[in-house]
Amino acid sequence: MSGGLGEWIVLGSMIFTAGGLHAQTQADMNQDACAQYKKADQLLNQTYSQVLKDYAKDPEFLTKFKQAQRAWVAFRDAHLAARFPKTNKQAEYGSSYPTCRCAILTELTQQRTKELKIWADGIPEGDVCNGSVKTATREGAFPTQASRPSGSCARQSSEL
């Protein structure tokens, strides 16, 4: 190895894994991160569709729910724009920008999916703050306390 800049860049992009040395280019990392986002987005869309189906007989809820989802998409996009505000992203943030962008989108999307799953799964009977959320009707359908929003009345009362 002559030690040229190109060789050092290649060495710098190698990742050590438990299985041994694994070379992964920035393009591979970008692709992997964006594939994770695509999976998270598909799950979000499935969950959203499930809520639309489950609440099809409540047009007032559906109007508000769709409005909330559009607002979340606007928030997601604005959040990303604030995180990476420069016009020329590649020049300003480097070749890892696509990886970072997709990682942030994945995190935001997974969080939103958790929020929507409350409507899809339902909540235990007796939660006085359930609002539009259906009551879970089958065993094991209750969301875990960790997945419940922190403002849930049932959770607050049990912590007092």
Question: Could you describe the 3D structure shown?
Answer:
The chain is 62% helix and 5% strand. It has 160 residues and is mostly helical. The protein has two domains: 26-121, Substrate Binding Domain Of Dnak, Chain:A, Domain 2, CATH 1.20.1270.180; 124-160, no CATH class. Strands 1-2 form a two-stranded antiparallel sheet. Strand 1 and strand 2 (20-23) form a beta hairpin. Helix 2 (26-54) runs parallel beside helix 5. The model is unreliable at 5-21 and 140-160 (pLDDT under 50).
Short description:
This protein is 62% helix and 5% strand.
Give the secondary structure arrangement, pairings included.
Blueprint: H1 5-12, E1 14-17, E2 20-23, H2 26-54, H3 59-83, H4 89-93, H5 97-121, H6 153-159
Antiparallel strand pairs: 1-2
Helix pairs in contact: 2-5
